[in-house]
């Protein structure tokens, strides 16, 4: 009886979905236009005020970079505390004459680009319907919109992530065993190189995404040549910034000098799975200040304290790590900024992220009845692996947001395939 009801519901949904498929370009155009209009209105409403500490710091670094051509936090000397990718983008916009409002709106343009790329990626693998469902699910996930209205790097990171995957997984469809067919000439080489450059830029925006480097060879198997080119391009992009750091500080810093702080925040006596930055490490900070350490030396010192805690409390550290992995999939955070985590926001996150995560879990456990497409496998591996990578430090909803586009992509493919199975016998329209 349940199967009959599901089939009946699928048939009821089938016709409007088929109607939308026939008008794919128009539907996409309307969705993107509405997103951009809403983003512009929201940006104007927020104005020039920067509500959060991280926003103000990114903007300060970008202002120095635009005005003086120096990557500095306080104007007294070089810094590498913040990753350079997002401040560099803000600086470029400042040089073009943009203010805070237009910089916010640029985030919405990138969000729109992310949705189009996600649609393209999903459509290649599972058809027009799945691509449109992905766009609909993303538009129904309001935290994307909220985050785009802030000067946080996650919207840029989402765009670069999906761009790199769209280049890497060209043709990763249901019957396509290789993610990046070489085609004729050297098209495969350009795709892999551009994907690697995008991944390098992504790492300079959010360094945690470096976890994708070793995954490239698994994700692109058996096309190891493309994986090697992409990995080499990534290393060159990130390495160029590492050379700058060495010249500025006479020490090796891969991307930024805040990894030690973040590692200690996630691996210390008072840390919990969901504590985030709300951990008292003031005695470590006082010791570093008393020793007169510069930011790179302080970073090394704080990292050493975190490593020391892990080595001296192995079982507790393991339990903490597992707790952080689990908390990665949470719908709320303990927040340091007062008023940021209103109860209604938690309810919205529960009502929107909860069903997406549940659908993702159902998709994974039903792999025997409905085998995973190649793209589904790769996106699922990245999404799950990201939880383990972020748990090395600490997890936040904001850190997860770029990856949530991959969650949505898997869910969209699953829903599309379910509808096709539940509503047999109906003629599917061919997109114009």
Automatic annotation (TrEMBL):
GO molecular function list: pentosyltransferase activity
Subcellular location: Cell membrane
Topological category with respect to the lipid bilayer: Multi-pass membrane protein
Assigned keywords, A-Z: Cell membrane, Glycosyltransferase, Membrane, Transferase, Transmembrane, Transmembrane helix
Transmembrane segments: 88-117, 126-145, 151-169, 189-221, 227-247, 347-366, 378-394
Gene Ontology biological process terms, A to Z: lipopolysaccharide biosynthetic process
Listed GO CC annotations: plasma membrane
The protein's name in its UniProt record: Glycosyltransferase RgtA/B/C/D-like domain-containing protein
